[in-house]
Amino acid sequence: MSLLVAPEHRPTLREELAGLPNRSRGVAIAVLALLALAAVVLLARGTSEEGTRVVVEEPIAFNLRYPDSMKRIEDDTLFHLERKGVDEFIVEPLELPAYRGDVGGVLPVEASREIERLRERFPQLELVEEGKVRINRVAGYSLAFRASRSPRLYGRLVLLPEPVPGARSGVKLLMLATPKGGAGKARDVGTNGLLKTPYRSLRFGTEGP
């Protein structure tokens, strides 16, 4: 077997260990075994899902994950997470009016109506960015905004219809974050901080990835 190892790759681990006293060789093998085990554990952690997984079945089925440090609030929304004074994640039902053609044509119109509703809650609201978005291959429409300047509060509203032809139902995702929640600007909401986990993990239906 040693003939199969190129000279530039010598000495091999076996040759290195063979040159050690029996006691030292045993210790070295034990250390290497522990390092290998630690690598396997870290790899398993890296590929496993973090946080809590939740499934909502009615009136529209979806599932997502969220960090354990976020508190679930029981209210009349479909799903609500909060870290008081830091960030917030709210899921509400989306009901679109009757339309013809692709749903992408009606979403900007519905988004303009949603902005007016948000202004009732945040009189200082300033729209920063809007446009198409995809969440786990589902097409939607996103609005990024500044909710207030003092205190600094930023938000993102995403309209996400079900991925079926002619869909009129779906979910509205409202995310709010302060600088403590990782939002230094409106575009950071949902892309930085803990809000990224529920936002990017949301899927329609009851089955996760």
Layout of strands and helices, then pairs:
Blueprint: H1 13-18, H2 22-47, E1 52-56, E2 62-66, E3 71-72, E4 79-83, E5 87-95, H3 107-121, E6 126-135, E7 138-148, E8 153-161, E9 169-177, H4 196-201, E10 203-204
CATH architecture label of the largest domain: 3-Layer(aba) Sandwich
Helical proportion, percent range: 25-40%
What percentage of the residues does DSSP assign to strands (E)? 25-35%
Radius of gyration: 25 Å
Transmembrane segments: 26-44
Keywords: Membrane, Transmembrane, Transmembrane helix
Describe this structure as you would to a colleague.
With 209 residues, the protein is an alpha+beta fold. The protein folds into 2 domains: 2-47; 52-204, Mog1/PsbP, alpha/beta/alpha sandwich (Protein Transport Mog1p, Chain A). The chain is built from 4 helices and 10 strands, in the order H-H-E-E-E-E-E-H-E-E-E-E-H-E. A hairpin with a 2-residue loop joins strand 6 (126-135) and strand 7 (138-148). The chain is elongated. Keywords: Membrane, Transmembrane, Transmembrane helix. The chain crosses the membrane at residues 26-44.
TL;DR?
By secondary structure, this protein is α+β, with helices and mostly antiparallel strands.
Q: Could you list some keywords that capture this structure?
A:
single chain; 209 residues; alpha+beta; Protein Transport Mog1p, Chain A; 2 domains; 3-stranded antiparallel sheet; 4 helices; 25% helix; transmembrane; transmembrane helix; membrane
